[in-house]
């Protein structure tokens, strides 16, 4: 692990495996997790010889937790700084949940700099919350309640997220507790401020900016990001391919682990 420092002094924790391999994959995690959520993909990809780069978004994992800067533009800027620092080119960009929305913002804000392929995993995009002209996603009041819980009882939030919202297939309590621990490794600032960004950001203009092959993987039983959002992503991204995991919820990287990894590799290799 090493740090990449942004132009405003925020240190972003970066992890780089097989750095001499030109076939690179950059992983962006979701809220309220860290790069650790990709453990079983990192092990697989590094064993197959891919260069794997992961980061902890500001406020999460081992990155700094500044008081501000949790909107998508700033977090996409952080990703771009990592890409520039490592000299990444012709890499596959992968984003889960909020990380998918940030990946899409990167594609528009930096015209997809260096990206040869985009893979969205249960992406909370283009808008996670319903609004008058967008009747999809979660009701605003439900997300307001989530933010209040993050402000007052973050351990309960992490418990509810990992044990009740993340998985559709049976998982051990140990696995659920592991995801809870990852969620609690985030800062309180990052958890609250990123949730506010999730509620308020509108990424509808981001979809048309994707000019590379794109894959959308989504769990049919996801209660956090609706199937309607995955359908809208496919409609808005020219030529995007949508793949549904019928027995997965939001925790798509783990719910049907073997099947997900197989489909994920297929997308990488296609």
Can you walk through the features of this model?
The chain is built from 10 helices and 8 strands. The two termini are 30 Å apart. The protein has an 8-stranded mixed beta sheet with strand order 1-2-4-3-5-6-7-8, sandwiched between helices. The radius of gyration is 17 Å and the shape is globular. It is α/β, with parallel strands linked by helices. It has a single domain (2-269), classed as Rossmann fold (3-Layer(aba) Sandwich). Helix 2 (72-86) packs across helix 3 and helix 4 packs across helix 5 (154-165).
- The figure for the number of domains is 1
Shape descriptor reads globular
In which range does the helix fraction lie?
Answer: 40-55%
Q: Structural class, from secondary structure content?
A: alpha/beta
CATH topology: Rossmann fold
Kindly report the oligomeric state of this protein.
single chain
Q: N-to-C SSE series?
A: EEEHEHEHEHHHHEHEHH
CATH architecture annotation: 3-Layer(aba) Sandwich
Characterize the biggest β-sheet.
8 strands, mixed
Distance between the termini: 30 Å
The number of distinct helices, counting runs of at least 4 residues, comes to: 10
pLDDT averaged over residues? 97
Alpha-carbon Rg, integer: 17 Å
CATH homologous superfamily classification: Alpha/Beta hydrolase fold, catalytic domain
Order of strands side by side in the largest beta sheet? 1-2-4-3-5-6-7-8
Q: Please mark out the parts with pLDDT under 50 across 5 or more consecutive residues, or reply none.
A: none
Secondary structure tally: strands? 8
CATH class: Alpha Beta
Strand content: 15-25%
